[in-house]
Amino acid sequence: MKFTKLALTFLSGAILFCGCTKDNSVAIKINDKVVTKSEFYDDYNKIKNSQLKYLPDGLKKDNSYVVLSIKSKYVNDVIVRALLEEEFEKRNITASEEEIKGRIEQIIKQMGSKEAFDKAIKENGISQEKLNSDMANEVKTTKLIDSIAKIKVSDSDVSNFYKQNKSEFSLPERVLASHILFDTNIESIKRTIVAADKDASLSQEEVERKAKEELAKVEALANEVRQKAINNPKNFAQLAKEYSQDPGSAQKGGDLGYIIKEQVVKEFGDMAFSQKVGTISPLVKSQFGTHIIYVKDKSAAQTQSFASVKADIKEFLIKKAKFEAFNNLIKGLKDKAKIEFVDTSLDPTSIEKKIQESLASESKKKAIKK
Questions:
Q1: CATH architecture classification, 173-300
Q2: What 3-state class would DSSP assign to 92?
Q3: pLDDT digits (tens, 9 = 90+) for 14-52
Q4: Computed from CA positions of residues 270, 276, 280, 282, in that sequence, does the dihedral angle turn out positive or negative?
Q5: CB atoms within 10 A of CB 180
Q6: CA distance 12 to 207
Q7: 153: which strand partners?
Q8: Residues of the chain with CATH 3.10.50.40
Q9: Can you give the C-alpha Rg of the chain in angstroms?
């Protein structure tokens, strides 16, 4: 359903408490809570660096609108966390080890596997202690929301939502597809070779030669794997786990779920939607590499029946009401709170002014280039 795209994930990643004490000078005062510069900047820098990782250098400067926007959001997060901590204590809301474990298991299920979860934890440098702390605060936040939002959604509410938003339940033609991806992007292969050349001993010509040799090997392997898939389509999932270089789908046997044509690159979509169910595609090249596509099912354009979406609508309306209740609580807590930005560079008004200046500067640069 289209409406489920609404951002109602107010719990995930929302509670990240830190305990660093390198610089004890005060950054922000929130009621009786003091946030030191170390507490603020240690985690802020980690988050900033993670989000800027793949962006061009020009957007990584401290005065860029991107960096300033990240800082603005993090300042708000710190304030919300402090206010929530106060509220947890006031209402005597706690989280048991069993509840923390249950929350972790929920996230693992959402991510598809413990391997994917462990990888994400490792890549983000999250310790077990930090993970448990974050999950405890997610559990407490859920309890807090449940205590303030006594939500009742009737069958009439659900029915009216369906009638008023019927267009949201229209489904275009869809294909249930899996794929195996091979990295046949020559520039990507060159980068891998250069990265492996620790002593920088290879000349440009040698890098080019090795890249062509590697590309030929990968293309030969792709043809070989495709033939294996044709010989035994039922073994496609195992082949994907073994050979696919798509980190998002490989461990799921290459499964992409039901896709619509506009969701994927043109070359992939044209092939998948023209294939017959149960067939293996020729090798398909796109900007991401070379694909082998297996079409498992096709579904014509249709409007979902009320019965098929009733439960989802009810869940959506409950989440929406809780989200609104949570936002109203935070707004009320902020309105009553005494907040002082001792580090004036963290004042949201000042940050917003700098964001607008940065955006204006970027617009001017673009206009000059034209």
A1: Roll (3.10)
A2: coil
A3: 434 444 446 689 999 999 999 999 999 998 998 899 889
A4: negative
A5: 28
A6: 44
A7: none
A8: 173-300
A9: 25
